[in-house]
């Protein structure tokens, strides 16, 4: 069974895109955290091909990240471009 991302990875993802020192909920940070979780679940699914619940959770996370990125693109395009480039996402 896979676990949630570690505190260290989460803190690193937050620090990479936080707007301010105490920012933990902005769309940029949410996208960064989801990206880390997606990477870990993807690795889990490569090993456990028949874990369909994990696959479903992965699809939900990808959908949520897609919605957050669409929101960012519509409301703050500069922040969107910065987020996509820092995380290495295709778009």
Explain what this protein looks like in three dimensions.
This protein is mainly alpha-helical and 91 residues long. The chain has a single domain (7-86), classed as S15/NS1, RNA-binding (Helix Hairpins). The chain is built from four helices and no strands. The longest helix is centred in the C-terminal third of the chain and has 24 residues, at 52-75. It is globular. The relative contact order is 0.15.
Give a short account of the largest sheet.
none
Question: Which fold name is given in CATH as the topology?
Answer: Helix Hairpins
- The succession of helices and strands, N to C, reads HHHH
Helicity level: over 70%
Strand content: under 5%
Radius of gyration equals 14 Å
Please indicate the count of domains: 1
Question: Topology, pairings included?
Answer:
Layout: H1 7-17, H2 27-47, H3 52-75, H4 77-87
Helix pairs in contact: 1-2, 2-3, 2-4, 3-4
What is this structure, in a nutshell?
Helix content is 74%, strand content 0%.
Please tag this protein with its features:
mainly alpha; Helix Hairpins; 0% strand
């Amino acid at each position: 069974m896979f676990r949630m991302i570690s505190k260290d990875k989460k803190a690193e993802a937050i620090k990479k895109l936080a707007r301010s020192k105490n920012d933990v909920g902005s769309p940029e940070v949410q996208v960064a955290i989801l990206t880390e979780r997606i990477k870990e679940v993807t690795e889990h699914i490569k090993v456990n091909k028949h874990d369909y619940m994990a696959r479903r959770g992965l699809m939900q996370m990808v959908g949520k990240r897609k919605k957050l990125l669409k929101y960012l693109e519509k409301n703050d395009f500069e922040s969107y471009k910065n987020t996509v480039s820092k995380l290495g996402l295709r778009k």
